[in-house]
Amino acid sequence: MISRFIAIFLFLNSSPLSAQKTVHLSGNSAVADSKTSYTYVDSTRNIGSPDFQEFQFIENKDLEVDYNPDIRFAYWRKILIVNQSQSPLWLLEFPDPHIGELKVFIKTKNGFFESKQVGFEFPFNNRPILHKNFSFELSIPPKDTATVYARFLSKNHCGISANIRTIPNYVQYFFAEYHVLGLYYGIILMLIVYNAFLAFYTKEKIYLYYCFYTISCALFTYTEDGLGFEWLWPSFPLMNYLLERCSPILLLVSFLFYSGNLIGLKRKYFNFQIAIFATSILYVSVHLFIQDEYHLNNVFYVFPFAITFYTALKIYQSGFRVARFFLIGNSIILVSFVVFFFRANGWIISNAFTVYLFNYGFVFEAIVFSIALSEKLKLINDQKDVAQKEIIHQLEINDNLQQKVNLELETKVEERTVELKKRTLELLDANQKLENLKKELYEMNSKMDVNIWELKKEVKKEMEARFLNDTISYEEFIEIYTDVKCYQYLKELKWKDGFVCPKCGNKKSGRGNTNFTFKCTQCQHQESVTSHTLFHGVKFPISKAFYIAYYIMKNGNDLTYEQLSSIVGLTKNTVWKFGRKVNSGLQSLNNKKNVNGSWEKLVLSTPEE
To answer: Residue 93: is its pLDDT beyond 90?
Structure first.
């Protein structure tokens, strides 16, 4: 740091004014660039002002640049001005609106410096003159001199040259520039509205893609020329860096969507699509994540556009005529990107043409692309007309065929109608015969049903008589009286006049928790069909219990309990217990001889074991 100040001090006022780089004000304007002013690089970024002493910059050709090649350093520019005109009032303008931090020191008559700090990182209203470029008033009497120091510290590459203009010249330049930009953005707005209307009317996505592309271009140039900061977000300087990063990516994405749809890129040339995607990812990576010292992102930015241009050329050669308009419009954009890259590296001068070439190119491209859209729409309409004519022709053929088929069908229908009438008469006759047979069959079935009913009735009487009078085997018994029939018999015998709740006398019931169990709808009491009968509490199949009761009632104790248990397949103890219950019920009846009356009473008895 000390050696740097010593080097600066050794060159303080070491040569006369005529030998120094000087800006001479003789007309309406002058340029303070690397040829007419000195540049100093402060790698420490610690020098904040020239107040320690007016220093003279070392003349080094390596420092003759008009932009900051290394954004890590602070750059100083010393401008010595000699006013050889009669105008005492001038404006010092730094035309690059992307300078992050600009501090200007203007030496006053008493030898002190008056400093003003503005920049991309400060609110727009901090500027002494509210213009998109950084402008400062200079008061230099005729034949007098002035010294200006400017310190540039920016997170992005920016120009460090300045223009010095008279007030009338500045106003003329101001109105001319804003007139051109106003015309440009007016055209952009008309294109957006027009294509949005077409998208709504035609339902074609390509117009929405073009609207997106147009808006992205407007946002890109709005950020590039500084008008966005002046008019849209003057109090939010952070938006400058955000959009400076995002707007080129949006422009690229919208261009790829629009161009891919216009030239039909999605339907062919898959390898080119991969190349476009890869170069786009490469650009985004460099642009967002890599500290770019050599403007490589500008080089990589051209690649996707160039590959798309080459692909469009191949598509045009394959016979797709609409691609020629895309080639014309896209070539202007490619040229504008190349010029922008050269201007950013200081290889060409910055003027109204080079600075706003992208704006001019996009307007020209918009006109050509509009023609391309019209051509594509015309092509689509022509294809629709051809398809419609083919459809009409096919419909005529189909109509002739339909008429021919209809005639044949009418003839066949008439023939078929005659045949059907004949068959109908035959069917009516057959139906009549069937009706007669049906009546006879119905009468026969009726007589048969009566006979079957009477036969069943006789069989039932015979079976009941045999059941009550004769002893039948266990196998015959269970074949007739299954468990379900036994339960059904108990239900009909117990409630032959309908269900009656033994607790509350209610006559309405519902289904209980188990089969052949009924629940009173009033008191919720559950009553089983075996309750209050001889078979209450039986733990084995009820059909076996029925047979044991039946056998004991008919034959008494002819068989031992052991023999009876062998017949029904139960244990001797089980048969013995239930047999005692049956005998107890029979003793309580006191009428063993009247079997017909005793059976029902026995079933409904509740003897104690």
So the answer is: yes
